[in-house]
Design a protein that fits this description.
The chain has 13 helices and 23 strands. By secondary structure, the protein is an alpha/beta fold.
Length: 480
């Protein structure tokens, strides 16, 4: 713990420590009902907007790509889980995906919306000498299958990639040295998401080891947990958020800013900014900023925007928000995981001159400072504490409302390392806590980070793999 020095008394003075607690935020489900748990709430009330016919799908038309074996396994697994899956002490029952239960919708898997990966096609990939060539050939193979399915008269709303293990062994990740650009790392999942974007269809990967798993299988999550994650992600890609925030933040626009190196860029010389923006209902849009030069050797590994780049990125976010909602935001909140450099701060505030209120927040993990609690469980999720003028927030920990400690590790707090704006630090922390419950790629109780930062990095990873000439889609469903 840092201490201040009192010259008058020639002694060290410990900084003042204060603690407070924020109640667990609610999330919103069908018929405007609320609950603290995404899984329990969805089981009880159904997904958000289930009562609005034009916004809730009664059926979902799914295409499939895989071998004859993996597609058969995937179809059987989906059918079994659609009826519901019993949980255990650590995993909540999955309520199913049928017209009369769970998500109150039904999956259609027409035989005409299947595209087979043959043994010869897998062998042609395996015969290539270099892993980077096998990686590129695998992407091309899957891309051609997606193109074929999306060219049909009755195209799928979503494509399940039931990829065989024997193909993934050749292409899951690849690292190589490029003559012009130096070390290159590529990720198959991200590359497939980027490639599928050109056909404007979301994808859902279903691994063979998941569909083959038995109750005694190792290194595979419990079946109910796998079902929750698969169907929650699928439903988001078809119908939008299965649940939404319940915050007193009307007219607010939440923006997460992160950076990535475009594929093929020289190491440490080029960066591109990404803004992941959400309104108070949890609806999101993706924004890609302009690329810019960044010298890691001179300026450090953490990239920063100059004044004009900062202003342009937020101007674009506000403009797209206004176009989507029909109104300008009354408040803008920006989250970064690094500090605000003076030029960034100036550019952001210039872009926000016409916005009535704003908050600029920098967040980072801090595992060097922790609270200890005299109890059987760690500190409570939602605990806010200050040491001197430094503020910390526990987004993981024991959850009193559920009587559970779902994380299984010693929790570390987030430090609100910077805050510039109009809200109190208590309101900023309450919003951060609420935004940790909007990860629609998983049905877990809450994430450690707010959705603004968690998703912006996910988006950056996919954008890094974007092929030349492909324009990134603004909807988040293409990235998860």
């Amino acid at each position: 713990m840092s201490r201040s020095f009192n010259k008058k008394n020639s002694e060290l003075v410990a900084p003042r420590v204060t603690c407070s607690y924020h109640d667990e935020p609610f999330v919103k489900f069908g018929c405007e009902r609320v609950h603290v748990s995404p899984q329990v709430g969805l089981s009880l009330f159904g997904p958000r907007r289930v009562e609005v016919d034009e916004q809730h799908p009664s059926t979902v038309r799914v295409g499939m790509i895989g071998t004859g074996t993996t597609m058969g396994l995937a179809e059987q697994w989906i059918e079994d889980c659609s009826a519901g899956v019993a949980g255990d002490g650590a995993n909540h029952d999955f309520p199913g995906y049928r017209e009369d239960r769970g998500f109150y919708s039904r999956i259609l898997m027409p035989s005409g919306l299947r595209e087979k990966i043959t043994k010869n096609e897998i062998q042609a990939v395996a015969d290539l000498k270099f892993r980077k060539d096998r990686f590129a050939a695998s992407i091309k193979l899957i891309s051609e299958k997606i193109e074929f399915l999306t060219g049909k008269d009755s195209e799928p709303q979503l494509i399940v990639l039931a990829l065989p293990d024997e193909l993934l062994t050749h292409c899951k990740t690849v690292d190589f040295n490029d003559h012009d650009h130096g070390p290159v790392h590529r990720d198959f999942r991200r590359a497939i998401k980027a490639e599928a974007m050109r056909y404007r269809v979301p994808t859902q990967i279903l691994l063979q080891r998941t569909t083959e798993a038995t109750a005694n299988s190792r290194n595979v999550d419990h079946k109910s947990r796998c079902a929750w994650n698969f169907f929650t992600g699928m439903h988001y890609k078809i119908a939008g958020a299965p649940w939404g925030p319940s915050m007193n933040s009307r007219g607010s626009l939440f923006i997460g800013v992160s950076f990535y190196k475009p594929l093929g860029a020289k190491a440490g010389t080029l960066q591109t900014s990404v803004a992941q923006a959400f309104d108070e209902h949890g609806e999101g849009i993706i924004l890609r900023g302009n690329s810019f030069e960044w010298d890691e050797a001179k300026d450090g590994k953490s990239p920063h925007l100059d004044e004009d780049q900062s202003k342009a990125l937020i101007d674009d976010a506000i403009k797209k928000y206004a176009r989507e909602t029909g109104q300008s935001p009354r408040r803008v909140v920006i989250h970064k995981s690094s500090c605000y450099w003076p030029d960034e701060l100036l550019g952001f505030t210039r872009a926000l001159t016409a916005v009535p209120e704003y908050d600029l927040v920098a967040l980072r993990y801090n595992n060097r400072i922790r609270l200890l609690r005299q109890a059987n469980y760690p500190v409570l999720r939602g605990t806010q504490f200050t040491i001197g003028n430094r503020t910390f927030l526990y987004t993981t920990g024991y959850v009193p409302s559920m009587r559970k400690f779902p994380h299984g590790h010693v929790p570390s707090p987030l430090e609100i390392s910077e805050h510039h704006g109009d809200s109190s630090i208590e309101d900023v922390c309450r919003e951060i806590l609420a935004l940790t419950k909007l990860n629609w790629n998983s049905s877990f109780f809450a994430s450690a980070e707010p959705i603004t930062l968690k998703f912006s990095r996910t988006v950056g990873g996919v954008m890094k793999e974007m092929p030349a000439g492909v324009e990134p889609r603004p909807q988040f469903k293409y990235y998860i």
